[in-house]
Write a structure and sequence with these properties.
The protein contains three helices and no strands. The chain is mainly alpha-helical. The chain has one domain.
């Protein structure tokens, strides 16, 4: 346990920041999982990808990009990690689009 007043305050701040960061990171994971399941369902279906499906995929991708960029700005994610995540999602969408 912290002994000094400043150490107690630092501990409280650390706990609050950790909760905030976990919430943001869980939100990003949820968005990415939703997009991945949507893309996997499109990939497994034997039908051609329609314009409506593309529109929905790009809307979800935009939402993920926005969340990831905000997380980088707040320091939850590192810049290169965010770039890698965004790149992987864009590659998946491009792969399905060519189908």
């Amino acid at each position: 346990m912290p002994m000094t007043q400043s150490a107690r305050k630092a501990l409280k701040q650390n706990i609050k920041k950790r909760e905030r960061n976990l919430a943001k990171s869980n939100h990003i994971k949820k968005l990415m999982k939703d997009l991945n399941t949507f893309l996997n369902s499109l990939e497994k279906s034997s039908k051609k990808v329609t314009a409506e499906n593309k529109k929905e995929a790009y809307a979800k991708l935009s939402e993920v990009y926005q969340a990831v960029d905000k997380a980088v700005k707040k320091g939850v994610l590192k810049k290169n990690t965010a770039a890698r995540k965004k790149s992987n999602l864009a590659q998946k969408i491009n792969k399905i689009e060519k189908k």
